[in-house]
Every structure is written in C-alpha cells, then in structure tokens.
Design goal:
The structure is a single chain. By secondary structure, the protein is α/β, with parallel strands linked by helices. It folds into two domains: 104 residues, no CATH class; 125 residues, no CATH class. The chain has a seven-stranded mixed beta sheet. It is elongated and about 115 Å long. The chain starts with a helix and ends in a 16-residue tail after the last strand.
Length: 285
C-alpha cells in the first residue's frame, strides 16, 4: 500500500516538473509577443519602379541615420508597372505614415563631384524618409523615388519634363546645371505613353525656378566639344564628371519669356543652340 502511495507521489512530482518548463517557455513567448505588439507601428506600402537593390527582412527605412522601419515583403503590383514594398514602421515612427511623407532609395554613387551613399557600402542599400506635415492625415500608400540627388527634400523642388527621341546617356541622378552651377537633377527617365518619345523628368530647386522660362532651351551636356578647321581648331573639355556621366544644361535667350509653370514640357536638344554663349538675359530670382 505504501509502495503504491509512494509511486503516486513520485508521479505527481514528475508530472509537475514535466509541465514547469513548457509553462515558463509559454509565458516567455507571451511576453515577447506583447513586447512586439507594443513596439510595432503601422504597416505601409511603398511602390518603386525597381526593387533590385531591396531585400525583405533586411532593407531598413531610415530617417537621419535612425532606423524607423523594415521591409517585410516585396511583391509585383497588379499592373506589373511597380514593385510594392510592405514596410513595418516602429511605434515611434507613426508620424511618417501621413500625407506628404517622401521615401527614396539610397545606394552608393561615386563621381567626380563627390561620393554619396558611402555608408551603404557596409550597411547595404536603405530607404530614406522625410516626414510630412505634423498635422497630416494618416496614409499607408506611397510612391517612392529611385534616388534623390537634390540635397533638399523633394517637396522643395519643382518638376519639369523634357521630351526627346533619344535619352541615351541620360540617367537618374545626372545633374542639371545653369552657367555651370548645379540647380537640380534628373529624377526619372521613361517612355511616353505611346512610346514615341522618351521623357526626362527633372527637379529644379525652388530657389532657382525663376530661371526656367517658357522659351528656355535644354540640351545634353557633353564632356568634349571640338571645332576642327583647316587652319584653326578648337577643343573644349568640361569637367571630368561631364566627360563620364554627361548631364543637362539649360539657358534662356535675351528675349526672356514668362516663368514656366510646374510640370511644363520642353524639347530636349542633343546639342547646344548656336551662339548661346552670347545670350546674357537678366533673370532675377
């Protein structure tokens, strides 16, 4: 009788030990889940034209060097035009899920004007963010930019479009210059809806928009210009960056037109206009 009682007591003791550790593990998992729920922020979706440099569970979203979110999933949009990145923001980054917030991809780029995105060589490509207005309405769908070469936020620039039959050598990030001074950048190169022309989207910093007039002329910046003759030859070389990457120059004739409206379209010329060096318009900005 005593032996049976002892066996029951031992069985109870053994059963208690068997369930003790699973109970502790279950409680710990519950604590981790609650911690995860308390720290997670809203989920947003950012569409990009290309996601070759982005990775799910690895690519971070940053603001001023601080991680505010992580890409959880990448999928092709229903219309096959974009790739959608599903991003989980941290709890303290809820203010980024509002109208006006901008997102763009930061990757390393080296040219003779300097080095940008150098930190991505070790940390990897990331998505940079610029918050919208503090009182902006909640939003969870955004259109991201492939790059942002303008030091100012994108909302501090004005967009224009250049039309051409050939956009060869023009790429996103190329500089747009006026009298040799960078005033903007190429932010997108694509085809027109009918595929009969190439469209070059440029963003000019707002403090320089008065330089863009209705009769402003845009042309491809070339690295080397040569004028050869039998008795007189002339070769002009621009910056090394222009030699390697090109870019866009623009200028306005002396008969100055009205200030061009945002989203205006201009013809993009392969060569500069004749005698444009003699133009000297008075443009106050």
């Amino acid at each position: 009788m005593k032996t049976q009682m002892n066996q029951k007591i031992e069985s109870v003791k053994t059963g208690w030990y068997v369930w003790f550790f699973p109970a502790i593990a279950l409680a710990f998992c519950g604590w981790l889940y609650m911690k995860y729920r308390n720290e997670r922020g809203p989920t947003i979706r950012i569409s990009f034209e290309d996601a070759s440099s982005l990775q799910a569970e690895k690519t971070r979203v940053r603001f001023r060097g601080v991680t505010i979110g992580t890409i959880k999933n990448l999928e092709v949009a229903d219309d096959n035009k974009d790739v959608i990145a599903t991003v989980l923001l941290t709890r303290d980054a809820e203010r980024f899920a509002v109208e006006g917030t901008k997102f763009w991809i930061v990757s390393p780029k080296v040219n003779f004007q300097g080095v940008s995105g150098l930190e991505t060589i070790f940390a990897g490509t990331y998505i940079a963010a610029h918050p919208g207005k503090p009182d902006g309405q909640f939003k969870d769908e955004f259109k991201g930019q492939m790059t942002s070469e303008v030091n100012e936020p994108l909302e501090s620039t004005t967009t224009y479009f250049l039309e051409t039959s050939n956009a060869e050598s023009i790429t996103t990030g190329d500089s747009v210059t006026f009298r040799g001074i960078p005033v903007g950048a190429v932010t997108k190169v694509t085809l027109s809806k009918t595929a009969q022309q190439a469209l070059i989207q440029i963003n000019i910093q707002n403090r320089y928009v008065k330089l863009v007039r209705t009769n402003t002329v845009f042309w491809r910046k070339v690295g080397v210009q040569a004028k050869l003759g039998l008795f007189n030859s002339e070769i002009k070389m621009n910056s090394l960056d222009a030699v390697l990457h090109g870019g866009i120059d623009f200028f306005t004739p002396d008969a100055v037109g009205e200030i061009a409206k945002a989203q205006s379209h201009f013809a993009f010329n392969q060569t500069p206009p004749k005698d444009y060096q003699k133009w000297n318009p008075k443009l106050e900005f």
